[in-house]
Amino acid sequence: MIAYTETEHVNVILVDDEIDACRNLQKILLEYVDPGIRISGHAYTTHEAEKKILEHKPDVVFLDIEMPHENAYDFLERISPINFEVIFVTAYDEYAVRAFKLNAVDYILKPISIEEVSASLRKAKDRIAYKKITGEQNQTTNFHYGIKDHSKLDRIRLKDNNGFDIVDFKDILYIEAKGSYSNICFLRDMDTEKNIITSNTLNEYEELFPRDLFFRIHRSFLINCMHVKKVSTEYNSVKMRNKVQLPVSRRRITELMEFFKKK
Q1: pLDDT confidence of residue 140
Q2: Distance CA 40, CA 188 (A)
């Protein structure tokens, strides 16, 4: 990870329609995360945010997703090109998947915690430092890639009641539907298997994950084809690298075989 020089304090704008939410986030940033950070202003509407962004040219914008009259996604598309890092702030976990599609630095769930704010700001600083080294001008293309080309994303934050894991797509073995929830089986440190129950549906993950890597074998299973050890056309099943046997629906088995032939 590229280190960000501590003397280079970032310029930040806080956008939330709740005044107390802005004040609370500012307090956390200044008292617990980075006392030298520059808070250039608060904005309580996207119209105010646009003016402050043009005036102060921030490095990072903490942006509430549900704003009056215009949500964060429409706002960012409208003011494109984006020359700052975005950290989404939301009370609704259902927005998490879309936040990753947009390839924001991170998203923070309300009520916000010091640890999450600190981790998100660190990632923003690292990305800013990387851009300075590489000469990358802005992140507009990242936002558009996030919508149009899922393969440009390479990891996701998986959150449950006990915390969260940042997981590379390549380390996910499979996702199993559990009603309106999903059980995600993935590898930690390349060989330790872990499962996590998330509040997103299998359909959402199917839409998000790169389609040259993941395949929907069954209404209840989405698999990472990198980790398939065997496909059985006799039993309509796949054997994963962790030796788990998963069913393949009869109508998908031929498509799965064609998928492997093409890859």
Answers
A1: 43
A2: 39
Q: Give residue 31's pLDDT band: very low, low, confident or very high (50, 70, 90).
A: very high
Judged by phi (left if over 0) then psi (alpha if -120 to 50, else beta), residue 179 lies in: left
Percent of the chain with pLDDT over 90: 51
d(CA 218, CA 239): 14
Contact 4, 129 (CB under 8 A): yes
The owner of tokens 């032939």 is: 261
How far, in Å, CA of 231 to CA of 148, rounded? 30
- Residue pair 106/87 in contact (Cβ under 8 Å)? The answer is yes
For Cα atoms 65, 93, 40, give the angle at the middle one, nearest 5 degrees.
35
Q: Give the span between the Cα atoms of 212 and 215, in whole angstroms.
A: 8
- Average pLDDT (214-227) is 96
pTM, to two decimals: 0.56
- Cβ-based neighbours of 27, under 8 Å, separated by 6 or more: none
Residues 126 and 119 sit within 8 Å (Cβ to Cβ): no
Collect contacts of 65-68 with beta carbons under 8 A, ≥24 apart.
65/89, 65/90, 65/92, 65/95, 65/99, 66/17, 66/90, 66/91, 66/92, 67/15, 67/16, 67/17, 68/17
Which of 4-8, 52-56, 83-87, 169-173 has the lowest average pLDDT? 4-8
Provide the H-helix boundaries in 69-156: 72-79, 96-101, 114-134, 140-148
Q: Go through the domains of the chain in sequence order and give each one's CATH number.
A: 11-149 (3.40.50.2300), 154-262 (2.40.50.1020)
Residue recorded with tokens 């608060």? 42
